[in-house]
Design a protein that fits this description.
Elements: E1 7-20, E2 25-38, E3 42-46, H1 53-60, E4 68-77, E5 80-81, H2 87-93, E6 98-101, H3 105-108, H4 115-127, H5 131-144, H6 150-153, H7 163-176, E7 181-185, H8 193-210, E8 213-218, H9 221-227, E9 230-235, E10 238-244, H10 245-250, H11 255-262, H12 301-305, E11 311-312, E12 318-319, H13 322-329
Parallel strand pairs: 3-8, 3-9, 6-7, 7-8
Antiparallel strand pairs: 1-2, 1-4, 4-5, 9-10, 10-12, 11-12
Helix pairs in contact: 4-5, 4-7, 5-7, 7-8
Bound molecules: iron/sulfur cluster.
Length: 331
C-alpha cells in the first residue's frame, strides 16, 4: 500500500528584512524563498554564515528580532496560514506543534529551574499533562534522549550537566509538547566531534521513532547527507538550489552547491581542503545580477548584469543559475 504524504510546511515567496539607522539601511535577509516539507520529512537548510538560514527559522516561528519584519509571503503550517494568526495563537502553536533546538543550549535552558520543570513545561502547558503522568512523561523523554538515571538527573539544574547532555535535554524539551515540526539551528556547533556524532544519531533516531518533521540548519553538507531527505542551499537570502539529497549530491547544478560539496572534508584525502574563494556578500549591498558572481568561476557578463530565474528539472530539483537555464534549453 502506498502511504499518501501530506505537506506540513509550505513557505511561499517569503521576504523578510531588517531595518536600521532610522530606516536608511535595509538588509534583505530573506529574499523570496519557496520550499515545502512533508510530514516525517527532514530538510537540510545549508549555506555559509549570514546567508539567511537562521532568519528563515525565526520567520517560521514568527519570532524575528525587533528590527526584523516579514515583508510578504505566506507560511502555511499544518493547514493554517501562520501570517494570519494572532500573537496568542502563535504562542499556542510554538512549543506544542513546533519545537526549536538552538545552537547554544544554555540560551534555551533556565539556570534557575530543574530539568524536570523545564522538560515538563510544554507537556503541562500545551497538552494538560499533570501529576504522575507528567513525571512519567519527563522520565520517558529524558530516557529517549539517552540521559542516564533520568529519575535522579531530572532533579538537577542545567549547570550540573555536560554540554552534550544539555543539548540532549533541549531536544527533550522540544519534543515535550508532541510537536509535528522541529527546527534545529546548528545544534551540534558547540559540541566536540564525538558528541556531535552521537547527537546526530540520536536526532535521526528520534525523528524516525516519532515521525516528526525536521528542518536541520547547518553550514555542513556532510551532515545533511547523513541526516536529511532533501536539501535547500541558501546564498545571500535566496535558495539557489534545492532537491532530494541524492540528486543534489550526485548532480549539483549550481556552482555554489558544487563548491560546498567540494569543501566537505573526506577521510583519507591528503589534499588541502577546498575553500570557496572570497566572502559571502553584505546583504545590505548585494552584487548586481547573480549575487554569487564575484566568487563564481563560471561568471559571464550576463551573470553580472541579470539575475537568473529558477529552473526546474522536473524531479523536484531547482537551480537558480544561467548555466541551468542553458542546460534546460539544450535538453
Ligand atoms: Fe555562476 Fe552565473 Fe550561475 Fe551565478 S548565474 S552561479 S555567476 S554561472
Amino acid at each position: 500500500m502506498v502511504t499518501a504524504t501530506k505537506t506540513l510546511l509550505k513557505v511561499t515567496d517569503l521576504y523578510a528584512q531588517f531595518t536600521g539607522f532610522g530606516g536608511t539601511r535595509v538588509v534583505r535577509a530573506i529574499d523570496g524563498i519557496n520550499f515545502t516539507l512533508d510530514q516525517g520529512e527532514t530538510m537540510g537548510l545549508v549555506g555559509e554564515s549570514g546567508c539567511g538560514k537562521t532568519t528563515t527559522c525565526h520567520a517560521i516561528f514568527r519570532l524575528l528580532p525587533p528590527a526584523g519584519d516579514i515583508v510578504s509571503g505566506s507560511i502555511e503550517f499544518d493547514g493554517q496560514d501562520l501570517m494570519q494568526l494572532s500573537d496568542s495563537e502563535m504562542r499556542s502553536i510554538r512549543g506544542r506543534d513546533m519545537g526549536m533546538i538552538l545552537q547554544d543550549p544554555m540560551a534555551s535552558l533556565d539556570p534557575l529551574f530543574t530539568i524536570m520543570d523545564q522538560v515538563a513545561e510544554p507537556a503541562h502547558h500545551h497538552r494538560g499533562v499533570r501529576g504522575g503522568s507528567l513525571r512519567e512523561r519527563v522520565v520517558e523523554l529524558l530516557r529517549s534522549v539517552r540521559i542516564p538515571s533520568p529519575e535522579i538527573r531530572m532533579r538537577e539544574f542545567p549547570h550540573q550537566m555536560s554540554g552534550g547532555m544539555r543539548q540532549r535535554i533541549v531536544g527533550a524539551i522540544s519534543l515535550s509538547g508532541g510537536p509535528k515540526l522541529i527546527v534545529a539551528d546548528e545544534p551540534t556547533t558547540n559540541l566536540d566531534v564525538t558528541i556531535q556524532l552521537q547527537y546526530l544519531n540520536l536526532l535521526r533516531d528520534l525523528q524516525q521513532e516519532t515521525g516528526v518533521s525536521l528542518v536541520f540548519v547547518t553550514h555542513n553538507l556532510g551532515i545533511v547527507a547523513k541526516m536529511c531527505d532533501k536539501v535547500a542551499v541558501m546564498y545571500a537570502g535566496k535558495i539557489v538550489e534545492q532537491g532530494s539529497v541524492r540528486n543534489i549530491y550526485n548532480n549539483p547544478r549550481h556552482p555554489y552547491t558544487q563548491a560546498l560539496i567540494q569543501s566537505i572534508p573526506r577521510l583519507g584525502n591528503k589534499d588541502p581542503l577546498y575553500v570557496i574563494p572570497g566572502q559571502p556578500p553584505n546583504l545590505a549591498e548585494l552584487p548586481t545580477g547573480c549575487a554569487f558572481h564575484p566568487r563564481c568561476p563560471f561568471a559571464t557578463e550576463k551573470c553580472i548584469n541579470e539575475e537568473p530565474p529558477y529552473v526546474s528539472f522536473g524531479d523536484g530539483q531547482e537551480s537558480k543559475c544561467w548555466l541551468s537555464v542553458e542546460e534546460a534549453k539544450n535538453g
